[in-house]
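Recall that a protein's primary structure is simply its ordered list of amino acids. Everything else, from secondary elements to tertiary packing, is in principle encoded there. The following example makes that idea concrete.
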Amino acid sequence: MQNINLQPMNQTPKPPDFIIIGVQKGGTTSLYNYLTQHPQIVPAAQKEVHYFDFNFDKGADWYYSQFPQPENGENLTTGEASPYYICHPRVPERISDLCPKVKIIALLRNPVERAISHYYYYIKIGYESLSLKSAIASEPERLQGEIEKLIANPNYYSYEHQHHSYLTRGIYADQLPAWMKLFPKEQILIIKSEDLYTNPSPTFNTVLEFLNLPPHQLQTYEKYNSTEYPPISEAIYEQLRAYFRSHNQRLAQMCDRDFGWD
Protein backbone atom coordinates (compact mmCIF):
# COMPACT_ATOMS: atom_id res chain seq x y z
CA MET A 1 0.00 0.00 0.00
CA GLN A 2 1.24 3.50 -0.81
CA ASN A 3 2.51 5.66 2.04
CA ILE A 4 0.64 8.92 1.48
CA ASN A 5 0.59 11.96 3.74
CA LEU A 6 -2.73 12.27 5.56
CA GLN A 7 -2.13 15.89 6.54
CA PRO A 8 -3.61 18.76 4.53
CA MET A 9 -1.21 20.22 1.99
CA ASN A 10 -0.62 23.87 1.05
CA GLN A 11 -2.84 23.43 -1.96
CA THR A 12 -6.50 22.92 -2.73
CA PRO A 13 -7.39 19.75 -0.82
CA LYS A 14 -8.36 16.73 -2.83
CA PRO A 15 -11.85 15.49 -1.88
CA PRO A 16 -12.62 11.78 -1.71
CA ASP A 17 -13.19 9.99 -4.99
CA PHE A 18 -15.95 7.75 -3.63
CA ILE A 19 -18.31 7.50 -0.69
CA ILE A 20 -20.09 4.30 0.27
CA ILE A 21 -23.31 5.69 1.72
CA GLY A 22 -24.82 2.46 3.08
CA VAL A 23 -26.62 0.46 4.03
CA GLN A 24 -25.90 -0.59 7.58
CA LYS A 25 -25.47 -4.39 7.79
CA GLY A 26 -25.28 -4.47 4.00
CA GLY A 27 -21.62 -5.34 3.45
CA THR A 28 -20.09 -1.87 3.58
CA THR A 29 -17.20 -2.99 5.80
CA SER A 30 -16.40 -5.89 3.51
CA LEU A 31 -16.50 -3.78 0.35
CA TYR A 32 -14.39 -1.03 1.88
CA ASN A 33 -11.78 -3.55 2.99
CA TYR A 34 -11.70 -5.08 -0.50
CA LEU A 35 -11.29 -1.65 -2.10
CA THR A 36 -8.44 -0.60 0.15
CA GLN A 37 -6.51 -3.70 -0.89
CA HIS A 38 -6.40 -2.40 -4.46
CA PRO A 39 -2.91 -1.04 -5.25
CA GLN A 40 -4.30 2.31 -6.43
CA ILE A 41 -6.65 2.94 -3.51
CA VAL A 42 -5.48 4.46 -0.24
CA PRO A 43 -7.80 4.38 2.78
CA ALA A 44 -9.05 7.33 4.76
CA ALA A 45 -7.89 7.80 8.34
CA GLN A 46 -10.90 5.68 9.30
CA LYS A 47 -13.50 3.77 7.33
CA GLU A 48 -16.47 5.68 8.80
CA VAL A 49 -15.60 9.36 8.82
CA HIS A 50 -19.21 10.39 9.57
CA TYR A 51 -18.53 14.00 8.67
CA PHE A 52 -21.81 14.71 6.90
CA ASP A 53 -23.98 13.35 9.71
CA PHE A 54 -22.17 13.56 13.08
CA ASN A 55 -19.12 15.80 12.55
CA PHE A 56 -20.38 18.46 10.17
CA ASP A 57 -19.65 21.22 12.67
CA LYS A 58 -15.90 20.43 12.39
CA GLY A 59 -15.75 22.00 8.96
CA ALA A 60 -14.51 21.05 5.51
CA ASP A 61 -10.81 21.32 6.39
CA TRP A 62 -11.26 18.66 9.05
CA TYR A 63 -13.01 16.43 6.51
CA TYR A 64 -10.28 16.84 3.91
CA SER A 65 -7.68 16.06 6.56
CA GLN A 66 -9.18 12.57 6.93
CA PHE A 67 -7.99 11.65 3.44
CA PRO A 68 -4.54 11.11 1.94
CA GLN A 69 -3.37 14.05 -0.09
CA PRO A 70 -1.22 13.47 -3.18
CA GLU A 71 2.38 14.62 -3.27
CA ASN A 72 4.49 15.34 -6.36
CA GLY A 73 1.64 14.66 -8.77
CA GLU A 74 0.86 11.21 -7.37
CA ASN A 75 -2.33 9.65 -8.66
CA LEU A 76 -4.36 8.04 -5.91
CA THR A 77 -7.94 7.10 -5.22
CA THR A 78 -9.49 7.35 -1.79
CA GLY A 79 -12.87 7.32 -0.12
CA GLU A 80 -14.89 6.47 2.95
CA ALA A 81 -17.87 4.37 3.99
CA SER A 82 -20.37 5.77 6.49
CA PRO A 83 -23.55 3.66 6.30
CA TYR A 84 -25.81 6.15 8.07
CA TYR A 85 -25.40 8.62 5.22
CA ILE A 86 -28.00 7.02 2.97
CA CYS A 87 -30.90 7.64 5.33
CA HIS A 88 -29.93 10.91 7.04
CA PRO A 89 -32.11 13.61 5.46
CA ARG A 90 -29.42 16.32 5.47
CA VAL A 91 -26.52 14.30 4.08
CA PRO A 92 -27.24 14.17 0.31
CA GLU A 93 -27.27 17.96 -0.05
CA ARG A 94 -24.21 18.37 2.17
CA ILE A 95 -22.20 15.93 0.09
CA SER A 96 -23.43 17.49 -3.16
CA ASP A 97 -22.35 20.94 -1.98
CA LEU A 98 -18.84 19.91 -0.88
CA CYS A 99 -18.06 17.00 -3.24
CA PRO A 100 -20.23 17.39 -6.35
CA LYS A 101 -18.04 15.06 -8.44
CA VAL A 102 -17.76 12.25 -5.88
CA LYS A 103 -18.94 8.79 -6.86
CA ILE A 104 -21.70 7.38 -4.69
CA ILE A 105 -21.91 3.66 -3.92
CA ALA A 106 -25.00 2.18 -2.28
CA LEU A 107 -25.14 -1.43 -1.15
CA LEU A 108 -28.77 -2.48 -0.76
CA ARG A 109 -29.57 -5.64 1.19
CA ASN A 110 -32.88 -7.48 1.37
CA PRO A 111 -34.57 -5.20 3.93
CA VAL A 112 -36.01 -8.15 5.85
CA GLU A 113 -32.59 -9.68 6.45
CA ARG A 114 -31.05 -6.25 6.98
CA ALA A 115 -33.55 -5.40 9.74
CA ILE A 116 -32.99 -8.70 11.54
CA SER A 117 -29.21 -8.41 11.32
CA HIS A 118 -29.38 -4.79 12.51
CA TYR A 119 -31.47 -5.83 15.51
CA TYR A 120 -29.22 -8.70 16.57
CA TYR A 121 -26.09 -6.61 16.10
CA TYR A 122 -27.50 -4.03 18.51
CA ILE A 123 -28.48 -6.74 20.95
CA LYS A 124 -24.87 -7.91 20.80
CA ILE A 125 -23.35 -4.49 21.50
CA GLY A 126 -25.97 -3.42 24.04
CA TYR A 127 -27.96 -0.84 22.09
CA GLU A 128 -31.20 -2.84 22.27
CA SER A 129 -33.01 -4.67 25.06
CA LEU A 130 -36.46 -5.31 23.59
CA SER A 131 -37.43 -8.52 21.83
CA LEU A 132 -37.36 -8.43 18.04
CA LYS A 133 -41.15 -8.37 17.91
CA SER A 134 -41.34 -5.54 20.44
CA ALA A 135 -38.56 -3.55 18.76
CA ILE A 136 -40.41 -3.67 15.45
CA ALA A 137 -43.68 -2.71 17.10
CA SER A 138 -42.04 0.13 19.04
CA GLU A 139 -40.30 1.73 16.07
CA PRO A 140 -43.07 4.18 15.08
CA GLU A 141 -43.25 5.54 18.63
CA ARG A 142 -39.48 5.66 19.03
CA LEU A 143 -38.99 7.55 15.77
CA GLN A 144 -42.02 9.83 16.03
CA GLY A 145 -40.97 13.34 15.03
CA GLU A 146 -37.27 12.48 14.75
CA ILE A 147 -36.90 12.97 10.98
CA GLU A 148 -38.70 16.30 11.25
CA LYS A 149 -36.24 17.38 13.96
CA LEU A 150 -33.27 16.33 11.83
CA ILE A 151 -34.61 18.40 8.95
CA ALA A 152 -35.46 21.42 11.10
CA ASN A 153 -32.23 21.62 13.08
CA PRO A 154 -28.87 21.14 11.34
CA ASN A 155 -27.20 20.36 14.68
CA TYR A 156 -29.78 17.87 15.94
CA TYR A 157 -28.66 14.33 16.67
CA SER A 158 -31.25 11.55 16.90
CA TYR A 159 -30.18 8.50 18.87
CA GLU A 160 -33.45 6.77 18.02
CA HIS A 161 -33.22 7.43 14.29
CA GLN A 162 -29.65 6.17 14.15
CA HIS A 163 -30.10 3.08 16.29
CA HIS A 164 -33.71 1.92 16.31
CA SER A 165 -34.71 2.44 12.66
CA TYR A 166 -34.92 -1.27 11.81
CA LEU A 167 -37.77 -0.81 9.34
CA THR A 168 -37.09 2.76 8.26
CA ARG A 169 -33.57 2.02 7.08
CA GLY A 170 -34.92 -0.62 4.70
CA ILE A 171 -37.28 1.68 2.83
CA TYR A 172 -34.76 2.43 0.10
CA ALA A 173 -37.39 3.92 -2.20
CA ASP A 174 -37.74 6.80 0.27
CA GLN A 175 -34.00 7.37 0.57
CA LEU A 176 -32.62 7.16 -2.97
CA PRO A 177 -34.64 9.94 -4.66
CA ALA A 178 -32.69 12.66 -2.83
CA TRP A 179 -29.42 11.20 -4.13
CA MET A 180 -30.77 10.72 -7.64
CA LYS A 181 -31.94 14.34 -7.71
CA LEU A 182 -28.54 15.74 -6.72
CA PHE A 183 -26.13 13.41 -8.51
CA PRO A 184 -26.15 12.33 -12.17
CA LYS A 185 -26.81 8.70 -12.91
CA GLU A 186 -23.20 8.03 -13.91
CA GLN A 187 -22.05 9.01 -10.39
CA ILE A 188 -24.27 6.52 -8.56
CA LEU A 189 -23.71 2.78 -8.36
CA ILE A 190 -26.35 0.59 -6.70
CA ILE A 191 -25.30 -2.93 -5.79
CA LYS A 192 -27.25 -5.75 -4.24
CA SER A 193 -25.54 -6.84 -1.05
CA GLU A 194 -26.42 -10.43 -1.91
CA ASP A 195 -24.31 -10.15 -5.07
CA LEU A 196 -21.35 -9.06 -2.99
CA TYR A 197 -21.90 -11.98 -0.61
CA THR A 198 -22.32 -14.69 -3.22
CA ASN A 199 -20.13 -13.37 -6.05
CA PRO A 200 -17.59 -11.09 -4.38
CA SER A 201 -14.94 -11.05 -7.10
CA PRO A 202 -17.08 -9.90 -10.05
CA THR A 203 -19.03 -7.51 -7.82
CA PHE A 204 -15.79 -6.02 -6.50
CA ASN A 205 -14.57 -5.54 -10.05
CA THR A 206 -17.85 -3.90 -11.02
CA VAL A 207 -17.10 -1.30 -8.37
CA LEU A 208 -13.53 -0.89 -9.65
CA GLU A 209 -14.84 -0.32 -13.16
CA PHE A 210 -17.23 2.30 -11.79
CA LEU A 211 -14.22 4.02 -10.20
CA ASN A 212 -12.27 3.84 -13.48
CA LEU A 213 -9.68 1.54 -11.92
CA PRO A 214 -8.16 -1.62 -13.40
CA PRO A 215 -9.58 -4.97 -12.25
CA HIS A 216 -7.97 -6.66 -9.29
CA GLN A 217 -8.23 -10.13 -7.78
CA LEU A 218 -7.94 -10.67 -4.04
CA GLN A 219 -6.65 -13.88 -2.55
CA THR A 220 -9.64 -14.09 -0.21
CA TYR A 221 -12.94 -12.27 0.16
CA GLU A 222 -13.50 -12.32 3.88
CA LYS A 223 -16.88 -11.33 5.28
CA TYR A 224 -16.27 -8.51 7.72
CA ASN A 225 -18.56 -7.50 10.57
CA SER A 226 -21.12 -10.22 9.88
CA THR A 227 -23.77 -10.90 12.52
CA GLU A 228 -24.93 -14.37 13.50
CA TYR A 229 -28.45 -14.73 14.86
CA PRO A 230 -30.81 -17.54 15.89
CA PRO A 231 -33.63 -18.89 13.70
CA ILE A 232 -36.43 -16.37 13.20
CA SER A 233 -40.07 -17.36 13.45
CA GLU A 234 -41.96 -17.59 10.17
CA ALA A 235 -44.55 -15.18 11.60
CA ILE A 236 -41.89 -12.46 12.02
CA TYR A 237 -40.52 -13.15 8.55
CA GLU A 238 -43.95 -12.90 6.99
CA GLN A 239 -44.70 -9.69 8.90
CA LEU A 240 -41.49 -8.13 7.59
CA ARG A 241 -41.97 -9.41 4.04
CA ALA A 242 -45.47 -7.95 4.00
CA TYR A 243 -44.23 -4.63 5.38
CA PHE A 244 -41.50 -4.18 2.78
CA ARG A 245 -43.33 -5.64 -0.24
CA SER A 246 -44.81 -2.40 -1.58
CA HIS A 247 -41.62 -0.47 -0.80
CA ASN A 248 -39.56 -3.02 -2.72
CA GLN A 249 -41.93 -2.70 -5.65
CA ARG A 250 -41.46 1.07 -5.65
CA LEU A 251 -37.70 0.56 -5.56
CA ALA A 252 -37.82 -1.83 -8.51
CA GLN A 253 -39.78 0.71 -10.55
CA MET A 254 -37.45 3.53 -9.53
CA CYS A 255 -34.32 1.60 -10.51
CA ASP A 256 -35.90 -0.35 -13.39
CA ARG A 257 -34.53 -3.47 -11.77
CA ASP A 258 -35.88 -6.55 -10.02
CA PHE A 259 -33.93 -7.03 -6.81
CA GLY A 260 -35.44 -10.48 -6.30
CA TRP A 261 -36.22 -10.01 -2.63
CA ASP A 262 -39.85 -11.10 -2.91
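Residues 18-116+173-255 form a domain with the Rossmann fold fold (CATH 3.40.50.300). Residues 242 and 262 are 9 Å apart (CA to CA).
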